[in-house]
PB1 domain-containing protein
Amino acid sequence: MEAKLRVILNDRVEKLVLPSGIPPTVEELQTVVKETFGISDEFSLQYLDSEFEDYFTLHTSDQIKHKDTIKIVHTAPIILNLLPLDESLGSSFDQQSTDCDSASYADSSAGTSSSQDTIILSRRNTTERCQGWPKQFPIPGFAYETEMYLERATEDYKNNGTLVTTSKIKTDILEKLAETIYTYTAYPSSAQISDVAEALVSKYPCLKEPGSFSGYYGWQQSIKYKMANYRTKLRGYGVPEVMCNALKHKNPANQKSAKNVKKTSKGRGKLPPPLPGRRG
């Protein structure tokens, strides 16, 4: 018997027609979804539970029926963070310690044990270069007054379903979200932005948007534009990762904001922060 499913794929909503009905296993359903929508990345499926009106992980295909809604959730890729050595420091080093906060190297090129041959490179904590995108995005803490407002608003939502209508806390929320997103990536994808917006309204359901099916589409758009503004702010401070995409650093033929944007590819090292010069 033919079955139809409503499929949420990033910012798209599609209809999936299953002529032979819903497959007997989740794996078979994933294969059909992958072939139908041309998905190459790994993903899992969630279904909209009518009792809780929220999405849950789909474990068996009998959890869904004709005209139900399923959601495609992309699995975060494994990212290798490779930090290149500064060739000007010497041809070989004995590594004393490596972590994300500091690195110390002993210069063995001179073949002596002099204390002048030891170089210590220190750099600030750059967690953005040491973490992959999380499976569950951690919503950061906001300003004291914002937290107090959200606490009261959440209580009102639980009591009578009242949603937040004021925008006076939105600026602080977006600023903190942008800072946290940047610790993982400067250029989040649409799926990653959707993860952030979904995590936000899951933690603070009072922030859901009336009239929006997902409840957070408007937040997705706000976060997207906030990240663009945040990158502009970082360019003003000379951050190399975003400076390379400034219009004035592109050749005249490519001076468009969305053209030839340099992003870190999967499996490739991210741009490291600038290291201080050698100290004598």
